[in-house]
């Protein structure tokens, strides 16, 4: 039986140094995958801000919304060493938004106390309230990209929490490879691309800056609701949204979409 993605051409937008896991999964599923870097993950403008937060033992919770945030946190911890950083012995609890972030946290030797079911502000707030009971005056650290949305910190502050948002890394649009960009633009215009996938809001915005909102009939798939919201704000109609916010979950969503399409 032919697999749903056989013969489909899928663009994988990603960070420049990101692993090509999704590309490999797509190709193993029968698709033709075009790996296209749109952003680069760079150090924060002020590395000392995160190091200073790590020196504190006054936080009740740390909310991590991406694997990049976990990696930045762990790099800062290694730079400080155990003498300067009281973590994890201080009793700080961790909220990892999504299974990939939870897995990265565990790989760093830190245990996620809660993993909200969805990457939306309401789910994070509900999960923290259920685990803690009361967020009033709880101190919460959110290390993240400077460009991220404020839905989660705003929701936590509305519940009475004291929230410190610290830039842990920057997402920077890559300098376009003119030849690669021209080739992809040509394929989009010719209708040769079935689906463009986005795994973060940053990849959406960088892709939009390169190619505009017209995708030549290509459909759009995202890794979750936050990325979908950015895609729609950028003028893209979202055809597929992963239920599990991982690259594997996104590929499964694509397979389901095309399997249903084949039966109609």
Explain what the structure shows.
With about 260 residues, the chain is α/β, with parallel strands linked by helices. The chain has two domains: about 10-40 and about 175-264, Rossmann fold; about 45-170, Rossmann fold (3-Layer(aba) Sandwich), CATH 3.40.50. It is about 40% helix and about 20% strand. It contains ten helices and nine strands. It has helices spanning about 20-30, 45-55, 65-80, 100-105, 120-130, 150-160, 180-190, 200-210, 225-235, 245-264, and strands spanning about 10-15, 30-40, 60-65, 95, 140-145, 160-175, 195-200, 220, 240. It has a nine-stranded mixed beta sheet, sandwiched between helices. β8, α9 (about 225-235) and β9 (about 240) form a beta-alpha-beta unit. α3 packs parallel to α4 (about 100-105), α5 crosses α6 and α8 (about 200-210) runs parallel beside α9. The longest helix has 17 residues, at about 245-264. The chain is elongated, with a radius of gyration of 20 Å. The model has no long low-confidence stretch (mean pLDDT about 90).
